[in-house]
Amino acid sequence: MIEILKMFALVVLQNASFTLVSRARNSNSLPFHAVASVMSNGIWLLVIKNVVQNFDKPVMMGVYLVGSVIGSLAMHHISMKYFEKK
Questions:
Q1: Element (H, E) at 11
Q2: From first to last of its 86 residues, what are the pLDDT tens digits of the chain?
Q3: How far apart are the C-alpha atoms of 55 and 37, rounded to whole Å?
Q4: The CA-based dihedral angle spanning residues 46, 51, 57, 60, taken in that order and rounded to the nearest 10 degrees
Q5: Closest alpha carbon to 23 in 4, 39, 42
Q6: Torsion angle in degrees (nearest 10) through CA of 5, 6, 7, 12
Q7: Residue 86: its pLDDT value, please?
Q8: What is the model's pLDDT at position 84?
Q9: What is the rounded radius of gyration, in angstroms, for the C-alpha atoms of the chain?
Q10: How far does CA 43 lie from the centroid of its chain?
Q11: What is the rounded CA–CA span in Å between residue 49 and residue 44?
């Protein structure tokens, strides 16, 4: 169960950071883009390590998929509501 929760949390963070860096590219702020890029790439490395360690577990594929959707949608909402407010 711990492996599933760890994978879920990492994938949510990964996709949230992917969405954030994607949105940061469209901003006028290089520091914002830099921070988002460091987060995105750092978390990606942790996720890949976890994926490799659990490659033979089908349940992890489902956890990865669900976590990726939740992370992406959550960061999209947070970005629109707080970071991109004008």
A1: helix 2-25
A2: 899 999 999 999 999 999 999 988 888 889 999 999 999 999 999 999 998 888 888 999 899 999 999 999 999 999 889 887 75
A3: 26
A4: 60
A5: 39
A6: 90
A7: 56
A8: 77
A9: 14
A10: 7
A11: 9
Distance from C-alpha of 23 to C-alpha of 75, rounded to nearest angstrom: 10
Upper half-sphere CA count for residue 49 (Cβ side, 13 Å): 8
Amino acid making up residue 5: L
Tokens (6 digits) for 14: 């990964």
Contacts of 60 (CB under 8 A, 6+ apart): 3, 4, 7, 51, 54
Residue entry with tokens 């006028």: 28
